[in-house]
Amino acid sequence: MATPTTETDTLVSVDVGTSGARATAYDTAGALLLEVRRPYPTRTPRDGWAEQDAARWRSSSLSALATLIARLGRGHTIHAIGLTGQCPSVVPVDGHGTPLRPGLIYRDNRAVAEAESLRETFGPGALHTLTGHVPAAFHVAAKILWIRANEPDVFKATHLFLQPTELLALTLTGEAVTDWTMAASSALLNLRKRQWAPELVEAVGLEVSQLPVPHPSWSIVGSLRPALVHRFGLPRPVPIVAGAGDSIACAFGAGVTSPGPVSEMAGSSTCLNTIVSEPTTDLAVTHYPSATAPGGYVTEVGINTAGEAVDWLASLTYGGRSGRLRSADFEQLDRDAANVAPGSDGLVFVPVLGDGERDDPTLRGAMIGLSVRHDRTSLARAALEGVAFAIRAHVEGLGAASTPATEMRVSGRPASLATWNQIKADVLGIPVLRIPGDATTSGVAMLAGLGVGIYVDPEQAVTIACRPEAPIEPDPANHDRYASVYEHYRSVISSTTLHAGAAEVPAAEHRPHSPPGARV
């Protein structure tokens, strides 16, 4: 093979996600060059619990990054590496950066009592004004309190509490650093000052030094450590850019930089983000600092198991006896759903399969209206519609709190499903624009480019690197048909039957996790 005479200017993003880690390379025009994935599992040992091996966050990310760099070869100049990942998830680590227990991921809902304690102490309104969030079991603050109460030895031994991206940043640079958006997801950051809120840090029993230092999303927070430069076979150190939480990065990658458009990060979970100049007063809407400017804010609401709920159904009905899914299975599910009329012949699906929702830990999923006349195509349509109904409820809430939605920009693997995109447009009554590829990783690459001066400002980055497809317009007749179905969905999710939640586990039954490497 001939040696290239010119090299491709390249930006890399690393995403420590829910289903695994991935390293992705883009050229500076926003074209995808290569992606490498490394999966890891989620454990659900009890109702409401969701954990991952935090050591896998690190090892899988390093493996993906090493393979990506090796496959790119010498024909690429890597100008920067940007970081993103699931949030709010957290793990305590010791002074060597070694995880002391499994990581608690965002859909872990065990810390209900701890979140309630924070709300009672400070008041929901005051907390929302200070942090942009009302603490729930979803947030890092409550998860830290749970560890403090139930695993005191782990809490005492903790040097740092880190989210997945922060653990990776520590590994890559040797520095305990984070970005504003990731820090805000903890519910411990002063939203306006972009600094840790001392009164909240003290309330969870920590010193500020036990949390990483927050930086703007476009900041260079360090360089790749010499040992990793050598391991990856790079000719020189590479700047590491702070990046942003996955949904915030996705909004930027989708070109959502002003009020009106809504970004949907469609993946295992769904996050919906809009831009506001000032935080709203609606306690149901969470807020993050802008990833692209010193001022400004990004709103967020979300669904814990959106794509994951469809994955679950597909594995049962389209995956064969093995339950192993291929891309073709999802495409078949999408085609089958197109052959079912809006309303799924009376079926209503509630896509809450993670033992609670981020804004309601007691809510559970359901398929309502089943009959022997239904087949897997009816179930498929109902699942796609159920997620669309959940999205509509959140989009309406965002619109009531700030600016009504003018369009929705969809990114992620589910965004490739044409029937589902049309259902979303019909249910919402607004155009849906698909962002090819993955706006989360491209958004992080764009932030990395801002950090090292590849792009002069966010507007230039969006103009160069974001290419939405033509709008999918809503069908007015279908939108009208969905009006009554949506109201039925709303009545179903308010049913007390779906809010039974998990039985309380007596305190005596809590068993602390064994230290790493121990046998149980």
3D structure, described in words:
The structure is a single chain. By secondary structure, this protein is an alpha/beta fold. Helix content is 37%, strand content 19%. The protein is built from 17 helices and 22 strands. The protein has helices spanning 54-72, 112-122, 124-131, 140-150, 152-157, 164-173, 180-184, 198-203, 226-232, 246-253, 307-317, 327-338, 376-401, 418-428, 439-451, 458-465, 476-493; strands spanning 8-16, 20-27, 32-39, 51-52, 76-85, 91-93, 103-104, 160-162, 177-179, 189-190, 195-196, 213-215, 220-223, 239-241, 261-266, 270-276, 286-289, 297-303, 348-350, 366-368, 407-411, 432-434. β1 (8-16) and β2 form a beta hairpin. α2 (112-122) packs across α3, α2 (112-122) packs across α4 (140-150) and α10 packs across α15 (439-451). The protein is globular, with a radius of gyration of 22 Å. The model is unreliable at 502-520 (pLDDT under 50).
